[in-house]
UniProtKB/TrEMBL annotation:
Record gene name: asnS
Compartment(s) where it occurs, according to its Swiss-Prot or TrEMBL record: Cytoplasm
PANTHER family reported in the protein's UniProt record: ASPARAGINE--TRNA LIGASE, MITOCHONDRIAL-RELATED, ASPARTYL/LYSYL-TRNA SYNTHETASE
Name of the protein in question: Asparagine--tRNA ligase
Organism, scientific name: Lihuaxuella thermophila
Predominant cellular place of this UniProt entry's protein: cytoplasm
Family matches, as InterPro entries: Aa-tRNA-synt_II (IPR004364), aa-tRNA-synth_II (IPR006195), aa-tRNA-synth_II/BPL/LPL (IPR045864), Asn-tRNA-ligase (IPR004522), Asp/Asn-tRNA-synth_IIb (IPR002312), NA-bd_OB-fold (IPR012340), NA-bd_OB_tRNA (IPR004365)
Enzyme Commission number(s) from the entry: 6.1.1.22
Length: 430
């Protein structure tokens, strides 16, 4: 019966069988050191010439990088090993001798690695990132599922834009025009009126011709919507969710974070409640820090968000943005209608916005007015207006960008490493 590398701690002193690949190999004459991987982790196998048959020794000699094999051996604790364990190999069976592997043990350019992304994800670093991504997804869904949220799947093909922008991928839906979704939010609002607290988790698409380290064309969003939850309640759920995710990753992905060389002390500070500043206060901060050309009503760019985040040791909410720079559905502050009841959550260490959210407009007349101001066709959005005509209630929601969150928690320089097969401005392969 096969054991996995992740499970070897429960088999110390016993012989096990692994199925895996050879990641690397070196020899000191009478000993071969096999770096093995099986998808769950990495372990070193020690092969001593006078302790195995000549046939087994020769098989090991013939192994090339990424050759597939079965390995038998006795698990031994070793504090010097990254995983804390090594394998004294007793036997091996070759499944396939791999051809010369294109990704060598040397520096490769980013374009070369991206062209070979299907192979690059086998490396320790890329495997660690994808394992952490999976843990982040588990943590998000675990928090929402145990706090009364119901998962609802919105459509990917839509007849209109969520935010009235033109950055959409157009396609034909038989004889009609259709677009790839840029957000499931509007549909989640409908679902919230049926189920109370809901969330979606799926791919979204933005046809922005952007090459920044924060942008992907196809990315994944988690979008909760909550009936009878106001702006304040919305922020509380967001900070509880993010803190829960970070702490779960710290608890379950210690080895992967070490592989990435992540500063754990920065993540250990991520505990609720998070600091909050208003848009007005953020503008004042930027002026003090030398951004004197930033004027009230402008939207924050990456340098602005980074500078604001430097003043805090954990994520920070920026609340009450000007109405004119935010989406049509956001509820104005009753005490100050030129700003809306919204917030962006800015991650520390220069990773920018990871969540955007707001209380939604619940007044049908005000929403209709917003349609007119944003030149939105009533026929395309009539169903959304219906939500305010038939039992309107205060409600709020937010969208969390998975890849930016992964980049921040992993400490990555670019979001292209946060998703198995990134889609960027000039990349659709592999």
């Amino acid at each position: 019966m096969l054991t996995t590398i992740k499970e070897v701690s429960g088999h110390v002193g016993k012989e096990i069988k692994l199925g895996g690949w050879l990641y690397n190999k070196r020899s000191s004459g009478k000993i071969q050191f096999l770096q093995l991987r099986d998808g769950t982790g990495f372990i070193q196998g020690i092969l001593v010439k006078n302790q195995v048959s000549p046939e087994v020794w020769e098989r090991a000699n013939n192994l090339t990088q990424e050759s597939s094999l079965y390995v038998w051996g006795v698990v031994r604790e070793d504090s010097r090993a990254p995983s804390g364990y090594e394998l004294d190999v007793t036997n091996l069976e070759i499944i396939q001798i791999a051809e010369e592997y294109p990704i060598a043990k040397k520096e490769h350019g980013v374009d070369f690695l991206m062209d070979h992304r299907h192979l690059w994800i086998r490396s320790p670093r890329q495997r660690a990132i994808l394992a952490i991504r999976a843990e982040i997804i588990r943590a998000i869904q675990g928090y929402l599922d145990t706090n009364g949220f119901t998962l609802v799947d919105p459509p990917i093909l839509t007849p209109s834009s969520c935010e009235g922008t033109t950055n959409l991928f157009h396609t034909k839906y038989f004889d009609e025009d259709a677009f790839l979704t840029q957000s499931g939010q509007l549909y989640m609002e409908a679902a919230a009126m049926a189920l109370g607290k809901v969330y979606s988790f799926g791919p979204t698409f933005r046809a922005e011709k952007s090459k920044t380290r924060r942008h992907l064309i196809e990315f994944w969003m988690i979008e909760p919507e909550m009936a009878f939850v106001d702006h304040e309640g919305n922020l509380k759920i967001q900070e509880e969710l993010v803190a829960h995710v970070v702490q779960q990753v710290l608890a379950n992905c210690e080895q992967e974070l070490k592989t990435l060389g992540r500063d754990l002390s920065a993540l250990e500070k991520v505990k609720a409640p998070f600091p909050r500043i208003t848009y007005d206060e953020a503008v004042e901060l930027l002026h003090r820090e030398g951004f004197t050309d930033f004027t009230w009503g402008d939207d924050f760019g990456a340098p602005h968000e980074t500078k604001i985040a430097e003043s805090f040791d954990r994520p920070v909410f920026i609340t009450h943005y000007p109405t004119e720079v935010k989406a049509f559905y956001m509820k104005p502050d009753p005490n100050r209608p030129e700003v809306v009841l919204c917030a962006d959550l800015i991650a520390p260490e220069g990773y920018g916005e990871i969540i955007g959210g707001s209380q939604r407009i619940d007044d049908p007349e005000l929403l209709k007015q917003r349609y007119e101001e944003h030149h939105l066709p009533l026929e395309a959005y009539q169903w959304y207006l219906d939500l305010r005509k038939y039992g309107t209630v205060p409600h709020s929601g937010f969208g969390l960008g998975l890849e930016r969150t992964v980049a921040w928690i992993c400490g990555l320089d670019h979001v292209r490493e946060t998703i198995p097969f990134p889609r960027m401005l000039n990349r659709l392969y592999p």
